[in-house]
Amino acid sequence: MSSNKGLLHNTWHLGMKEFHSLLGDWTMLFLIVFMFTISVYADARAKPESLHRASIAVADEDRSQLSARIIDALRPPQFITPQHVELADIDKSMDAGLHTFVLNIPPNFQRDVLAGRSPAVQLNVDATRQSQAQTGTGYIQNIVNDEIRAFMQRYRAAPAQPVNLVTRAMFNPNLNQSWFAAVTAIINNITMLGILLTGAALIREREHGTIEHLLVMPVTPLEIMLSKVWSMGVVVLLASTFSLQFVVKGALGVVVPGSILLFAMATLLYLFAAASIGIYMGTLARNMPQFGLMTILVLLPLQILSGALTPRESMPEVVRWLMSLAPTTHFVSLGQGVLFRGAGIEVVWPEFLMVALIGAAFFGLALQRLRSTIGNM
Amino acid sequence: MTPGQGAAPVVRSAAQPVARLVELEHRYGDTLAADRVSLDVPAGCMVGFIGPDGVGKSTWLGLIAGARKLQGGRLEVLGGDMASARHRSAVCPRIAYMPQGLGKNLYPTLSVFENIDFFGRLFGQSRAERAHRIADLLASTDLTDFADRPANKLSGGMKQKLGLCCALIHDPDLLILDEPTTGVDPLSRRQFWELIKRIRSRRKDMSVLVATAYMEEAEQYDWLVAVDAGQVLATGTPAQLHERTGTRTLEEAFLALLPPERRGEHAPLHIPPLTAGEVVIEAHDLQMRFGDFIAVDDVNLQVRRGEIFGFLGSNGCGKSTTMKMLTGLLPPSRGEARLLGEVLDARNIDTRRRVGYMSQAFSLYGELSVRRNLQLHARLFNLSHDEGDARIAELAQRFDLVPVMEALPDALPLGIRQRLQLAVAVLHRPDVLILDEPTSGVDPVARDHFWELIIDLSRKDGVTIFITTHFMNEAQRCDRISLMHAGKILASDTPEAMVAARGSGTLEDVFVDYLAEASGVTLGIVDEPAQDSGSTIPDADPALLSADAATSSSGSRVAHFSFARLLSFSMREATELRRDPFRLTLALLGTVMLMLVMGYGISTDVEDLNYAVLDLDRSTVSDSYTLNISGSRYFLEQAPLESHADIDHRMRAGELAMALEIPPGFGRDLARGARPEIGVWLDGAMPMRAEVARSYVLGVHAQTLSEAITASTGARPVPAADIAVRYRYNPDMRSLIAMVPAVIPMLLVFIPSMLTALGVVREKELGSILNVYTTPVTKLEFLLGKQLPYIGLSMLNFVLMFVIAITLFGVPFKGSLLAFFVGALIYVTATTGLGLLMSTLTDSQVAAMAGTSIGTLLPAIQFSGMLDPVSSLEGVGAFIGQIYPTTHFLTISRGTFSKALDFGDLSAAFIPLLIAIPVLTLASVLLLKKQAR
């Protein structure tokens, strides 16, 4: 019983020490504030729609009413107002990466359409920009088809579609990309700080010889570890909740249907996992430069492959399986559920459980390593 | 003590002073380190600065060395104004500065030879000259046998000798030593001063400025400056000071010089006799091995309650290791240590409460104020708030910490920091105090106060004290002492008995005798100053040395930019990198691993989208319609939906990316031509996935309809127009071909910038940045020199990734290899430059790492066109995207990989990359300071 009291007591005071250390590092404080405000805002505002300002050029050899009508329909915000290029310059402009799409409308296009000869327009797509290429192609096809149909209706009754397909997006009716980007940015920041702050705090203690000092005091590795986890956890939790409330809901005006409280609880749980990973890495690295490299090696896959950047469905089985061991994957899916779809605990409890389990596993691993290596620090 | 004994005092009062301080003022916050000081320091002799800790000695020396920025007043060194950068860089090669702290300006992973060699290169010496000088210096410092040993494996005394070698490599005219023998054992100290003496006998014009806490050493200097509270108390030769104060020792003289209110009640120490109790500390055959190396061998000892047990020995003989075993910090390899009869167990928290330990290196939190450090420890030792505060107030009073309670330890002088450490160690009133060189670097007055306290603790409270020290007058005060050498205890007895047994004059002589005997060192010259000219160093070729001196003084006009100096930093950085194979492996293998994971993992193909159908019609028509969708490779059908609520629920759970709703009477309406409507619900939580799903489902829908018409009419419907899509550069839309050329630029920004990110800030945090302050290296040389090895490593990474791309991933490379290679070279120069910029911007390694992560991850992943072209972005993101190097190298990478392009086609991408390099470097140069505050 008394050891439990000691645990809480020591963990509390060691944690407060971490706060004071952080408060003395102005650059770091500035970076934290920057990450959760300006950085999130800029990221969200950079690309409001999933197809946004796609650059397109048109080589219009027909110069007819129909071709003008098609060109006119390709307009902002989905597209940059199309530029006219000569047929001969198509290759050059695509090589230079000036345009993702170049539409080529052949001579006598309008005449052939009206004559029912079914002429072909050519759409050149820069497939190295795969993501935009995919979404944009569908858009352009629809727009061209719609314009041709509407144009023809003025001359003869076009056959109506026997079945209408009506698509609606749930949770995000306009498929607004900035919601997604903002929340992804916050999640990425949480991951980065959770790992970096705790791991670096441990290595800093080692490099400055203070860990040795802690060890002659009635403090256990468990307390050292818990203190770093909770203190850094609180910092990141406060920053992320602030960001969600004032940057995402406030400045960006995103309507968040879910419960921010639930998300904050999930964040706390996730931070526990991320901080444990950070400590684990801190016991592996012998100095700060090594830790820096390890951070990049761990952060990159966590940020890119956790489903926050591209959908997990499209990843290879192996990668998907590997990433299911990372707490980030579950946290991203949980975050999307809570924040976008307004899911409650009854829906997202499996992710909660996974984050907790993975966090506990890493915490156990890190604690064991810390205990076995701390003497040689 | 012998410094300066050989050379007769040569104070040439008429000669120009080596340094002239006029109304010099320097403050840190409220503390005045220099209070309008005016002083002429005579040239060509050994000048000592004596005084308590924290009165400004180190600051003055730092200012004279040009390592600190002048705040107020005037300072002339070697005949010029130190406020002028031009003069500083001109005289810098003539000044050598050894900062306070053991091995502070050394590079721990570099060997002895490499450390000296690095400084030689900085001063532009040729290979032959360096070889000659290093051999000479090593021989005269007895370090020849240790030339290949890394600096961090040296004992304290050896570190100081090495530091001196590094300082002397360029034959300075002015040598500045800040407490050079603090923490060094008596034998090494003698050797050190002998060395200085020999060097001075060779270079008679050299001025030496020393700050010291050893008054006996100062007794031998030519001229002294007594310093207190940022002011000069008195100057003159030791004899003059004695005369003025009518005292016999310098220690007494200094006390007499102090204003009465600063003197305090200083009385000779009185040690009450010991009434020893039971055995408290006991060691049996204690042994510690590190691999093959036996650090401590068969140590046996017993210490009784209340005893003050002195543990003496040369640096690195195993004292600290023994102490760590006695605290339980280090489990012994063999034997056992007992505390109050119980075997020490590192995990036993209760024993920790009974032991107070003070380690040799400062091990408190430098970023927390003195008060907070004390408070933290009070809390951790479970003192209640009131109890803790009372105890802290008491200790602050007793240890004279009251004026610095709110200061940060990092900004305090060594002596005060040691007092703080001791205060922390006794805070919880332990039974046993284990003190590892507690008085190193502490001034004599404070040391006596400290001993009063120790004696008090021992005799009144019965605290057992186990202490190591290099001060023989302290050893004299111990009840018993042990002499240790090379892991073994040589002798153990009361100090008086030891002196008697050995028959030599003082305890110091006994000590030196024992150690010299054990290590086989001869110290003949110590007592015979006449032997000066024929001293042990082969006094090399005098002609060569004088020639060196001539070249170095005539060549003292420092070149504005020296490639040699730049390279010396590169070589050093490369060596450090080589000594850290784990980091090297991380950088290389890590890249490969990330390349594989990201190359395979990032895929923008959307496949296997989970969907389910709410079929309210349940007719054959609706069945055949849904069959078409389930047949598509893009969709993966899940269990059918039951109701609208079910749609809601399962979409909310993220189980479905899409839900289809077929209305009741669908088949009937279709047959009647009533144009029924199918509803599709998409999960908008991931907009990009929703967009793709929408275009897929529209495509499948159109195809289903046209097939239905074909089936019913027997002819394919003719569309009004056909849209022929040509996917260029990657006709099959293979994700790998699109992603691999994008992954290379990504990885070449993250890893290279992280490699350099700690370059500068680490030197700031660990102290070796001083070498940049005090050597002729320019900021540009320093930065570029640090960058060069990482550019090399990054190019190796680049080649590795390129090979993986074309072999393992089988991505065809169509364009100009040369253009790609040159582009990569420019690009990694920019990205390593970005890391360095972060490093100069920040004050802590953590902040540098966080800054670099933020400064690379977000712009490179989101704003550089990896997924969405930069032209699609808006606002700040678009601006960053346009200027960020990754954008342009991405164009080069994709252009050369997939589009078969060459230099000419890519010039628009090369130009911004080329501009980025000087911009980043210039920013770093402007932000880097060449002096401390």
Automatic annotation (TrEMBL), chain A:
InterPro entries reported in the protein's UniProt record: ABC-2_transporter_component, ABC2_TM, ABC2_TM_bact-type
Localisation: Cell membrane
Positions of transmembrane segments: 26-44, 178-203, 260-282, 288-309, 321-341, 347-367
GO cellular component: plasma membrane
Pfam family name, one: ABC2_membrane_3
Residue runs in coiled coils: none
Main location: membrane
Keywords: Cell membrane, Membrane, Transmembrane, Transmembrane helix, Transport
Domain ABC transmembrane type-2: 137-373
The family this protein is said to belong to: Belongs to the ABC-2 integral membrane protein family.
Protein's name in the database: Membrane protein
Automatic annotation (TrEMBL), chain B:
Example of a GO cellular component annotation carried by this entry: membrane
Membrane topology: Multi-pass membrane protein
Tagged with keyword NADP: no
Gene Ontology molecular-function annotations: ABC-type transporter activity; ATP binding; ATP hydrolysis activity
Segments forming a coiled coil: none
Transmembrane segments: 581-602, 736-761, 788-811, 817-839, 906-928
Sequence ranges assigned to domain ABC transmembrane type-2 in this UniProt record: 685-931
Domain of life: Bacteria
The keyword Membrane belongs to this UniProt entry's keyword annotation: yes
Keyword line: ATP-binding, Cell membrane, Membrane, Nucleotide-binding, Transmembrane, Transmembrane helix
PROSITE patterns from the UniProt entry: ABC_TM2, ABC_TRANSPORTER_1, ABC_TRANSPORTER_2
Domain ABC transporter: 19-254, 281-511
Annotated localization: Membrane
NCBIfam families associated with the record: ABC2_perm_RbbA
UniProt name for this protein: Multidrug ABC transporter ATP-binding protein
Organism whose genome encodes this protein: Thauera terpenica 58Eu
Taxon lineage: Bacteria, Pseudomonadati, Pseudomonadota, Betaproteobacteria, Rhodocyclales
